[in-house]
Each structure stands twice: as C-alpha cells, then as structure tokens.
Amino acid sequence: MKESLTMNFKVTSRDLNPKGEARLTSLAGFFQEIAYQHAEKLGFGYHDLLAGQTFWVLSRMKIRILQYPLWDDEIRVQTWPCGLDKLFAMRDFRIFSGSGQVIGLASTAWLIVGNQTRRPARPSDQLDQYREGQDKPFAEKLRKIALPEDMSRVDLRSVVYSDLDVVGHVNNVKYMEWCIDAAGETGLRRGIGTFEINFMHESRFGDEIEIRGTPAGEEEVFFLGRGTFDDREIFRAHLTWDQALS
Questions:
Q1: Which of 4, 60, 105, 134 is most buried, most CB within 10 Å of its CB?
Q2: Which domains does the chain have, with CATH numbers?
Q3: What's the rounded Cα separation, in Å, for the pair 68 and 103?
Q4: Residue 63 in contact with residue 106, Cβ under 8 Å?
C-alpha cells in the first residue's frame, strides 16, 4: 500500500477495561501515536506545521471494532493518508491481530489550524499527492452527526490539567472517555461496536462542559458536549453496541 506505515503495539495492564479487553480509548491513543509518527516521516508532522505557525486538529473520527484485543496481545496498526476532502486531510487505519486478522477499522478527518487565529487553514498541495491508490475502510464518508431532539443532561465536566494535550486544549481521547463514562454500565456490559465523533470547537483549562445524551439502553446512543461558558457545541458523538454492528 502506497505511503502506509505499520507499527506494533502491545496491550498492557494500563490499557485494560474491567473485562480484560483493550479500552477503546487506548486503541484511539495508538491511532494518535502512529498518525503523529507517519506525518513526521512524510514531512507534515507536528514540528513541520509548528514552523508555519499551524497545528493539526482532529475533526472527525469513526472507529469500528470487530474484536477487542486482550491483555498482552500483540497487535499491528496500519495507517495511510488518503488525500484531501475540501479542508479536511483524510487518514485511515486498520488494526490486525497477531495472526493477521483485521479486528478494527478507523477513518479520520483532520484540519490544519492557525496558532493565533484558531481557524482552519488551507492544506498544502503536498498532502493532495496521497489521494490516489489508497484503500478505504468504510464505503461512506465521514459525516456531521445528526442529533435527535430528546436529549437530556447526563454529566457535567470541568476541564482539568490532565485533560490537556501539547497544544493546550482538551485531547480528543478525553472527549471519548467522557462519552463512555456517560454511557455507564450499559457500555461496560455490551461493549462498543462503533464510535463516531465530531470535534466542533476546542475547550481549554477551566471550561465547563455540559454533556447531554439519549438513553444508554437503546441500540444506539448519542451525546452532545456544549460549553456552559458560551453555549458553543464542543463535540457530537454516536455509539452503537457490539450486538448492533452493521
């Protein structure tokens, strides 16, 4: 596969949920690490963008887990950039078991954002060269998640220091954690099959985020994170349980 990178990861004790499986957020952390490493190798990584007073922001992500790896499992994660969709730089992933079976798929859309303006910048033509010859894990494009009207408050979060990443805002994995926590016992009992999330605006230290959701006992559940400080949408998320995989 053209311009792909594969890295090996081991599921350690810190990656486990109470069922002894890798946490979805740990797998998302693996995606984040390999994406960083690959972008650096291709010449448009964190330090390259920093020189131009910009940085990467994850805007949309969809993960589908077919089989969760277990404690001490050795897995391989493969990633490849797949060109531009308007302002979005697209990057996809596959997870392989030790035996080579595909056990997970993911697709992501990234924006390049100005350090000072905090607004999206147009990607360079350098990224567009990776459009051709790439294989897509999902037939459908990443979407803006449509939310139902019947959502109620399920949690309230204040952004603390440990939520922040290297650019000073809440890391994408933290928003995923908040949604999984809000799903409660249902999420633990049934397991997450598909997790899709839109990151709408950044939040920073001290911000308060109201999380609204639909009942976790349904086949799918939706979440909305909204800042109480300015009423802006911070994120939207859609989860299906592993019995509802399609």
A1: 60
A2: 1-143 (3.10.129.10), 144-246 (3.10.129.10)
A3: 7
A4: yes
